[in-house]
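Troubleshooting log. The previous structure file for this entry was overwritten by mistake, so regenerating from the original sequence record. Sequence copied from the archived sheet and checked twice against the printout by T.R.
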Amino acid sequence: MNLLIALGLSIGILAGAWVQVGSALGLPVWIGVISWACFYAVGGKKEGLLKTITSNLSGVLWGFVIVLILKALGTFPIALGLAIAIGCFIMVIQANIKVLSFIPGAFAGTAAYFGSNYDWKNTAICLVIGALLAFLSQIIGTALSNIGKNKVK
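Regenerated output below.
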């Protein structure tokens, strides 16, 4: 089977299941889709899983720090811009650490945290679940694409 068809099947089935189960549990399932996309964007496999989870979760942390900085600065005229500048700087600089080197993943984690109305717990849960489902979808898709390829003639 063609790899893209196999991946399409595995991703489609798992994503459909995720939306059904996650929604029933009251989770913001869209956040899992973000980390799923990050997994494939960073190249997949075990290394991609590690980089996705660590960078996404670091983004949640830096989003939390941005909010703390903003609260500390109060109504200072450029408080929001300054807090964002500091957070963005850190998310880029941390890319010197190999497991945190996927800069878009950190920004995606921060955006998911902000988009969840600052719900760090459910954001982190959904980011991890999405990355794990992405990894599973790659394993299943690859296995499906290899069916029948090793036949002895």
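Residues 3-146 form one domain. Archived copy saved in two places this time.
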